[in-house]
Specification:
binds magnesium ion; binds zinc ion; binds adenosine-5'-diphosphate
Length: 480
C-alpha cells in the first residue's frame, strides 16, 4: 500500500525594511563584506537592541493577509546556539508569544480550493554568512546580513504532496510581493523554504517521523528535494526500517538529500525572554491602521479580472501573478476605454492577448519601453481599421526598440491599412477577372473558395487591405 505524504513548510521571508531588525544599519544587498555593521549587530557587549517599527508593521500586514490573529502582547526570546556567523551566540527570535498565529491560506486552481492552516508567523533576525569560496585553508565571515529582519511563517502539516507544497509556496510568495514586504527572490535567498516531510499509512491519523529539508533555493529544487525524500523514506519503510528524525541538506549537484544533523529540541536552544527588550505591545488601533493599507491580493484580483474583464481563469491567473503586469493590463484597458467608449468587458480579452502574447513575447529588456498608453493607442488604431492585425504586431516590435509612437511608425513605414472602398474594389475586380474558374465554382455553391479570394485580395494589397472590409465587398461582388 502506498503511504500518505505529510508536509509542513517553514518559510523565512526577508523583510524589505531599509534598516536592520534591532539597529540602524542598512540592509542593502551586495556591499563589501562587513561594511554594514555596528556594535549592535556585531554583538558587542553593553549595547542595546531597539525594535524596528517597520518590521513590526510588515509582520502585521502579512499576518492580516494570512487571516492570523495579531498578538497584543509580544515577546522576543533568545535562541542560543553556536555558529561562526552568529556573533552574539544567540539569535533574537520569538518563541512562546509570536506576533501572528492561527491563520490560513487558500490554495487552488480550477475551482478546487484547499485551506492550508498557518500555525504562526514570528519575527527574528538573520545570521551573517560564512564565505568559503576562493579562500584556501580558511573560512571568512561576512556580517552584513546579520540582524536583517526575517518573518518565519510556519504551516500546520496540511500539505499532502510536493505539488501542493509548491502551490502553497507560490501563493505565499505572490502575497508577500503584493504586500511589498518581501521581494520573494528564492535564488538570492530573500525567500527561504524548509519543507518538513513524513509518511504514514494511508488513512492513519497519527503523524510519522519527519525529516526537515534545508538548502533549497528555487521552486524546482524544493520539488525535487521533496520527491527524492518521499522515495527515500518509502524505501526505508517498505524494508521494515525506521525513519530517523533529522535535518537533511539538499545537494543540487547530486540531486539527493544527505544528513546534516539529528533532531534538535527546543530545549537544546535554551530559549529565554531577551532581557534587553521589553515586551512589545501592539494596540488594536495599530492593527486597524495597518489593515486599512492592505492592497488587493492576487486571489481577489484574479476573481475580479475574471468578472470585470470577462477573462478565463487561466488568463486572469497569468496577469495577476505579476503585480506590475496586472497594473499594465488594467491601464491599457482604461486608456482604450477612454478613447473609444468601449467597456472593460469588451476590451478585456483582446487586451489580455496582446499583453500576454505579444508584449510578453518581446525580449525582457524591451518591455519597459512600451507604456500602457502606447499599446492602447496602437490597439485603438487597429480596432478602427487604420492598421491590420499583422501590421500592429510589427509596429509593437518597432515600438519596443525605438520608443516611437504608433502614429510615427505607421507614417514612416507606410503601414496604413487600405479601408478605402474605391481602392479595395479595384483590387477585388482584378482578382475576380483573373480567376473566372473559381468564380464559377463559388456561384455554383462551392462556398469554400471564398477563403481563396480573401487570400488573393490580401496578397494583391501587400497585406494592407482591411480584412473585414474585404470580406464585406467580396461577398457583394461574388454574388454577381
Ligand atoms: P520543529 O520543532 O522540529 O521545528 P514543529 O513541530 O514545530 O517542528 O513543526 C515544524 C514544521 O514541521 C511545521 O510546519 C509542521 O507543520 C511540520 N511538521 C510537524 N510534524 C510533522 C510531521 N510529522 N510530518 C510533516 N510535517 C510535520
Ligand atoms: Zn548594526
Ligand atoms: Mg524546524
Amino acid at each position: 500500500m502506498t503511504p500518505e505524504v505529510v508536509i509542513g513548510l517553514e518559510v523565512h521571508a526577508q523583510l524589505l525594511t531599509q534598516s536592520k531588525m534591532f539597529c540602524g544599519c542598512t540592509t542593502a544587498f551586495g556591499a563589501a563584506p562587513n561594511t554594514q555593521t555596528c556594535p549592535v549587530c556585531l554583538g558587542m557587549p553593553g549595547v542595546l537592541p531597539v525594535i524596528n517599527r517597520k518590521a513590526v508593521e510588515f509582520a502585521i500586514r502579512t499576518g492580516l493577509a494570512l487571516h492570523c490573529t495579531v498578538a497584543p502582547q509580544n515577546r522576543f526570546a533568545r535562541k542560543n546556539y553556536f555558529y561562526p556567523d552568529l556573533p552574539k551566540g544567540y539569535q533574537i527570535s520569538q518563541y512562546e508569544l509570536p506576533i501572528c498565529e492561527h491563520g490560513w491560506l487558500d490554495i487552488g486552481q480550477n475551482g478546487t480550493a484547499k485551506r492550508v492552516r498557518i500555525r504562526r508567523a514570528h519575527l527574528e533576525e538573520d545570521a551573517g554568512k560564512n564565505l568559503h569560496e576562493g579562500i584556501a585553508g580558511a573560512s571568512h565571515v561576512d556580517l552584513n546580513r546579520a540582524g536583517t529582519p526575517l518573518l518565519e511563517i510556519v504551516t500546520e502539516p496540511d500539505l499532502s504532496s510536493p505539488e501542493e507544497a509548491i502551490l502553497y509556496l507560490k501563493s505565499l510568495r505572490d502575497i508577500l510581493v503584493y504586500l511589498e514586504v518581501c521581494d520573494g527572490n528564492m535564488e538570492e535567498g530573500s525567500l527561504r523554504c524548509e519543507p518538513n516531510l513524513s509518511l504514514r499509512p494511508a488513512g492513519s491519523k497519527e503523524l510519522g517521523t519527519k525529516v526537515e529539508l534545508k538548502n533549497i533555493n528555487s521552486f524546482r529544487f524544493a520539488k525535487a528535494a521533496m520527491e527524492y525524500e518521499i522515495k527515500r523514506q518509502e524505501k526505508i519503510l517498505s524494508e521494515g526500517g525506521k525513519i530517523l528524525q533529522e535535518t537533511r541538506l539538499w545537494n543540487p549537484d547530486k540531486g539527493e538529500t544527505a544528513p546534516m544533523r539529528s533532531k534538535e529540541e527546543a530545549h537544546d536552544y535554551r530559549y529565554f525572554p531577551d532581557p534587553d527588550l521589553v515586551p512589545l505591545r501592539i494596540s488594536a488601533e495599530m492593527v486597524e491602521e495597518v489593515r486599512k493599507t492592505l492592497p488587493e491580493l492576487p486571489e481577489a484580483m484574479k476573481h475580479r479580472f475574471q468578472e470585470e474583464y470577462r477573462l478565463t481563469e487561466y488568463d486572469a491567473g497569468v496577469l495577476t501573478a505579476d503585480k506590475a503586469l496586472a497594473k499594465f493590463f488594467e491601464e491599457t484597458v482604461q486608456a482604450q476605454a477612454a478613447a473609444t467608449g468601449l467597456s472593460a468587458k469588451e476590451l478585456g480579452k483582446e487586451t489580455s492577448n496582446w499583453v500576454m502574447v505579444e508584449l510578453q513575447g518581446l525580449p525582457k529588456d524591451k518591455h519597459s519601453t512600451i507604456t500602457p498608453q502606447m499599446l492602447a493607442d496602437l490597439l485603438v488604431r487597429k480596432r478602427k481599421g487604420e492598421v491590420s492585425g499583422t501590421s500592429a504586431k510589427t509596429i509593437l516590435v518597432t515600438m519596443s526598440t525605438t520608443a516611437q509612437s504608433a502614429a510615427e511608425i505607421i507614417k514612416a513605414k507606410g503601414l496604413t491599412q487600405v479601408s478605402d472602398e474605391g481602392a479595395l474594389e479595384k483590387i477585388i475586380d482584378e482578382v475576380i477577372a483573373k480567376n473566372t474558374q473559381q468564380v464559377a465554382q463559388y456561384r455554383s455553391g462551392k462556398e469554400a473558395v471564398f477563403g481563396f479570394f480573401v487570400g488573393q485580395v490580401m496578397k494583391a494589397s501587400g497585406g494592407m487591405a482591411n480584412p473585414a472590409k474585404v470580406n464585406e465587398l467580396l461577398k457583394r461582388k461574388l454574388v454577381g
